Amino acid sequence: MAVSLGASAAGGAHEHGVARLSLVQDDTTITLGFDSPLDSLVGFEHAPRTEAQKKALTQARVTLENAAQVLTLPAAAACTLTSVDVELPFGEPGDKHAAHADDHSGHSDAEAEYVFDCAQPTALTQVTVGLFKAFPRLQRLDAEAATVAGQGKSVLRPAQATWSLPAAR
Ligand SMILES: [Zn+2]
User: Fold this and answer.
1) Which InterPro entries match (predicted)?
2) pLDDT of residue 4
3) 165 Cα to the center of ligand 1, angstroms
4) If 166 and its partner were Cys, which of 1, 19, 66, 152 is the partner (CB 3.0–4.6 Å)?
C-alpha cells in the first residue's frame, strides 16, 4: 500500500533555525526527507567566501551523507539504507544543484533524502534524530509522517529528538 503526504509537506515557510522532516512508507520502503534553510546548517546562505565557509559546506555535506549521524531507526524494524541523496547549494561550477541557490530571494535551502528498505516496517515506531547534535543552529524540526498506520505531525526540538510515528491501529 502506498501512502503519500498532503500538499502541505511540499511547501512551508523558510525560517532560520527550523527545518522539515518527512517520512513516507510504501510497503517496506521508507523514505525520509529533510529540507532545511542552509542557514540552519552552516550559518550563511550566500556562496562561500572564506575557507571556513567552504569547509562548513563540505562538513555539512559529509554529515548529511552519513545517514547514521542524521537519524536512527529501531533495530527491530531491520532497515537497510538503500540510497542517500544530498543536495546543497553552491556546489562546483556547473553543478546542476547549484541552481538551487539562484532563486533571487537571498535565501537558499539544503535537502537530503534517505531511502530504507525495512523488513519489519510494523516495528518502525519511532525515529531518533541526530540532526540537532550535528547542527546546533537547528532549533526545531517540523516532522510529518505518512505510514500505513496513519498520518501524524510532530514538532521535534533538541531536548525532544525522538519522533514517535503513528501507531498501528
Ligand atoms: Zn534564509
Assistant:
1) ZrgA-like
2) 57
3) 29
4) 152
